[in-house]
């Protein structure tokens, strides 16, 4: 049910009627209302009720760190409770960068519900794009926007000071890229991107380490002899006493849909769920069924 007061609050915002606070950012000025701002944003509450000059002057000058558009999105959300992310930048191919902008400005102004809107919009877009990328091997035309968003996230969104290795926004981009890793790493533009900057390299390192945790790289000792000539490297006729070329066979991938992952109690996608974890009976059942060539019950 729509909030009956939302349109009235939006009219106050658009008209400036009864305004008692002025907010400035760049070339823009908003005439706003202290009671609305302070009851809906921790940041504005602290600024207008704390020991700051703004509390007396009731005039807030914001740096252009987030940009005028992003500040307007926040103010309009504070008054209406609505942020329709796909409509914010209609000229783009994706909402990746827009979700980053909304997330960071919402986090700055202490609006956890708006942070969640940004994360949910990002997750919905990833869910819509992954089938074509992962299952059909699509070569996407939006890689430039994906790369821009990853660069921004890794440059400007800090790692949380908790036991979690990534912020929710980093984890979202990492999860999307990891799910499509077998396609992305074979795209020349992606390879160029991960070499282009320290932020891009840090992202690729995180994605690679996630692959390590997920069991992508299974280290095994090679056979004692060369697969081709059957000689041992230590024999006198060999040039070197070790193998110069060691490679696994082409991967046979195990897969699980989201429904089966829940039913089988599989750990997160970026952890090893392929049966190597003795604490995960469901994962072992999936791996055993795959080895036998028989679909597991309810398997994906």
UniProtKB/TrEMBL annotation:
Annotated signal peptide: none
Domain BTB: from-to ranges: 19-87
Residue ranges with Low complexity bias: 282-294
SMART domains, per database record: BTB (SM00225)
InterPro entries: BTB/POZ_dom, SKP1/BTB/POZ_sf
One Pfam family named in its UniProt record: BTB
PROSITE patterns: BTB (PS50097)
Record protein name field: BTB/POZ protein
Region (Disordered): 270-300
